[in-house]
Write a structure and sequence with these properties.
Oligomer: single chain
Number of domains: 1
Number of strands: 17
Pfam families: DUF1996 (PF09362)
Strand content: 15-25%
Order of helices and strands: HEEEHEEEEEHEEEEEEEEHEH
InterPro entries: DUF1996
Protein name: DUF1996 domain-containing protein
Number of helices: 5
Helix content: under 10%
Structural class: mainly beta
Shape: globular
Keywords: Signal
């Protein structure tokens, strides 16, 4: 089934009840490996001792992705030969951490991803949204070549600390259409259709810097309300940018046997950077649309995975875009520890297991 029409979009995006236009499209999985070119540029195999300690799943732009992602090389589309995304003009890089299941016996297994509703044929990956306006109010300025950002903090382990990231949540999927009941923590009970990680980025930009030392302070949230409620941008970040939003579906259904869960009944899923709470969830972005394609899409208020003047490709074509791993390690099957020797820690930094 193809995704089209605002009626379906409104049903899926309960957080955007009045949205009249948005891009919603699939980006298949490019590669799964322990690299982080934003925080650990040039390092093959993000080390457990790094300040960020992320273990990554990358999506899209086969030749544009590498361990360093040199910010001086702004022409990402010019260095890539394929994209995993449905929009053929999009060579951006989208990535998140990887979710693992920790069994009662202490071993770990990587949780696979699956295609989102209406994108079931995608090879995992994520659904990407760009929202230009809400109810037709105002305009947004598309990201510029060289733009990159991170939202969330992988070191966070508390609800209070995670509160500053307003819209990083999880949905315990009862079925593929579930879009209610978002939580800030990982769901504490089995989810029949999997766990969906919802990652919404800040929507205000300082208008000058394409990046910042922490990859976050050049962007900000509205001073009040949200992007969806047309909240105003702060004077320090006056430029309204599209709301970038990831939906990543983790197929946890194969791990729903209560006999395999911890004896105390606690939830068994752990992020690859050593977080069993879920409060450290985060996402990364490196802009890579060709020319002014994204700005044209935002100005046109394009809908879903079709937009006049923008090239497109099938999910099957996107699935074919892959890249070989550069980190030589076992990531599949049952593991005695998280890749890279990552330890699971609590709010105080104490090793839990």
């Amino acid at each position: 089934m193809r995704f089209h029409g605002t009626q379906v979009a409104a049903g899926l995006l309960s957080a955007l009840p009045g949205a009249q236009a948005l891009l919603r499209f699939s980006c298949s999985q490019l590669v799964v490996e322990r690299l982080d070119p934003l925080v650990n540029p040039g390092v093959v195999g993000s080390p457990p001792s790094s300040p960020d300690r992320r273990w990554r799943k990358f999506h899209e732009a086969i030749n544009a992705f590498n361990a360093s992602m040199d910010p001086a090389k702004l022409d990402i589309p010019g260095t890539a030969t394929c994209t995993t995304c449905q929009f053929a003009d999009d060579f951006s890089n989208y990535w998140t951490a990887v979710l693992f299941f920790r069994a009662r016996n202490g071993t770990y297994h990587r949780v696979p991803q699956k295609g989102n509703v209406f994108f079931e044929q995608a090879n995992g990956g994520m659904t990407v949204y760009y929202t230009p306006t809400i109810n037709g109010r105002g305009k947004v300025t598309a990201f510029k070549p060289g733009f990159r950002m991170i939202v969330g903090d992988p070191m966070e382990r508390t609800a209070a600390g995670a509160a500053k990231y307003r819209q990083l949540t999880y949905t315990c999927l009862q079925n593929s259409m579930t879009r209610t009941g978002e939580t800030k923590n990982l769901p504490p009970k089995p989810c029949p259709a999997g766990i969906m990680a919802n990652i919404r980025f800040p929507t205000c930009w300082d208008g000058v810097n394409l990046d910042s030392p922490d990859h976050a302070s050049h962007v900000a949230y509205p001073t009040s309300g949200t992007f969806e409620s047309s909240g105003p941008c702060p004077s320090t970040h006056p430029v309204k940018i599209p709301q970038l939003f990831y939906e990543v579906i983790w197929d946890t259904s194969q791990f729903n046997n209560a006999a395999d869960w911890p004896a105390d009944g606690s939830q068994p899923f752990v992020w690859s950077y050593g977080d069993a709470t879920g409060y450290g969830t985060h996402g990364d972005y490196v802009f890579g649309w060709k020319g002014d394609a994204l700005q044209r899409a935002m100005d046109q208020n394009c809908q879903n995975d079709k937009c006049n003047g923008l090239g497109s490709q099938s999910l099957q074509q996107g699935n074919k875009c892959t890249v070989k791993t550069t980190v030589d390690e076992n990531i599949d099957g049952w593991l005695d520890e998280l890749p890279g020797g990552m330890k699971v820690t609590d709010a105080s930094g104490k090793v839990v297991y």
